[in-house]
Predict the structure.
Amino acid sequence: MYKLPHYTADNQNEVLEFMHQNTFVTLIGFDGEFPVATQVPVKTVVDEDSIKLIGHIMTKTDHCKAFEQNPHVMALFTGAHAYISASVYENPSAASTWNYKTVQAKGMIRLMSSEETYQVIKELTDKYENPETSPAAFNKMDEAYIQKHLKAITGFEVTVSHIDHVFKMSQNHSSKNKENIVANLEKSNDAIDQEVAKEMKKDF
């Protein structure tokens, strides 16, 4: 990880908030020969000094088999990112770069029972589908349909033991350079460029 002091947050709460906001992670394991990865939504649960990631995966896949063999995993959280052109710097004869935010959470994965998996799916669905108004709400699904599809998935819980992060948003540049970078990003028609501009302005 490209980690320098000026690209890190002042406190862990800022890192945890980033994890709460960017829930679609790349979950990475190792099958003994190659790394394996799958992209899944997770819920970050903070309980006093404990941090856990809750989600679910398909069974009988390369990554599920790898997690069964080796419980050491890493979840990669990513946010908006953008190319930063040196052409807008006060001194443009410098290297262009890339701005981004990312968190790497390492820990041990535990695959859940069918009962626990049921609850994970219910909570995830209830988060995105209003139980009172949505026709796709969990409580409006046929129970036989739910049980049939539960056979193909398993919930998981990652107990996080180590977190690293890089929040690289041109913190090492002059105020004038930062203003120029933001202005240039705001001219872009790319929504992700616009998002990076918003992130940079938080530190002004």
